Amino acid sequence: MKRTGIVWQAAMICALGALSLRCSSASEERAPDPFRLICLDPGHFHAALVQKYPNERLDSLVYVYAPEGRDLEDYLALVESFNRRSEQPTARHEQVYRGADFLEKMIQERPGDIVLLAGNNRHKIDYLEQSVTADLNVLADKPLIIDPDEFPRLERAYTQADRNGVLIYDIMTERYDVLHRIQRALMQDTLLFGHLTAGTDSDPAVTISSVHAFYKEVAGSALTRPGWYYDIRQQGEGIVDVTTHLIDLVNWKCFPDRAIDYRTDVQITAASHFPTPISKSEFTRSTGLADFPAYLTPYLQDSTLQVMANGEIRYTLYGHRIALRVEWEFEHPDQSGDISRTDIRGSRATTHIWQDKAQNYRPTLYIAPADGIDPASFRQRVNETLKTLQTQFPGIGATEAGGNRFEITVPDQLRSGHEAHFAAVLDRYLDYLSGTPTPTGKRPTP
After folding, report:
1. Residues sharing a CB contact under 8 Å with residue 204, sequence separation 6 or more, in sequence order
2. 297 and 285, same structural domain?
3. Rounded to whole angstroms, what are the CA distances from 40 to 302, 315, 422?
4. pLDDT tens by residue, 269-328
5. Range of the domain at 165
6. pTM over 0.70
């Protein structure tokens, strides 16, 4: 429990980190030149997705510092595929330094404004600390740390960033999904949603579950995972990966105007984890490697890799019971895509986002009245609320979905895929670096 609790705290502070720092006065006064990106040791495809769409505020020249190896070549190939595509092609030029001393070389030269971290998580805290100390802003993929012993270093890094006037920003893409945004807006209408319930152990106020796949498509092609992705000493356990997104969504939707102190406001009540078995043939199909590397030997049982990718956390936040569960399969059946379910219970209504077979694996938003709420009055309130949201979400509506539940219909033009959310995160980050005030008071001072 102690280890899980500390790692969960890391996920919490990562989720809060995007809201924690003010921009430096230098950023506020800078000329409107394009920002220069430094990509440090890219090993995860998210490093390329940040650059997938053109952005006039980002210089087309990207400085890359990395060791030789397939991680680097796969990253460069994906970026180049964005340059060559027929629709919305980019014009990225990746200036690459290859060498074992890549980190020292980057710190010495400091050719850009922003260090992008998305790769092997084992060294991420080292990269983060050195970048902040060198007065460089950091845009980082989650998780920022994977070992509880690194948690004090993460706290000190945020303190150092405050002192140096630079911004650490975690890539929280789920905030930019339109269904999450509409669900959050519905919850702000107390006449419709009421107030978040306290919940019980058997019926928490917030329940979120999601199922992901190791083998999937990215940018229209099968994703090749690096071998280390299956090593929890390099990638981390699943409980600190996707769970960071879920924690962030809970905070953002349920407590948008409240400062959260993870040391006093959060109490973990239960936690568990369990492995996903990966056969040798599945591993080869996913990574292109003929055999399991030696560093995976400790996780082999009867020639099957046991990846500790699944976990559940139950906790209370301001007295509200919350349950989060993340699972990983090797591959989704029938290429269904990710499966998820979100239930948030208010005193007057419950909102759901479901993505399962019944929804044809397409995320769908519902709202249903709480017990004792008059169905006719509820229907009227739903329509009134949606009318007020038309300016922000034009074309949304509601259709009856049975059992007094309504499906919130969303025009296709408002929906954007997960890969497009990286561009939205980048835009928001550049807003803050350009002088837009960041929300304050979300993270306590260590």
Report:
1. 314, 321, 322, 323, 345
2. yes
3. 37, 35, 17
4. 999 999 999 999 999 999 999 999 999 999 999 999 999 999 999 999 999 999 999 999
5. 2-174+420-433
6. yes
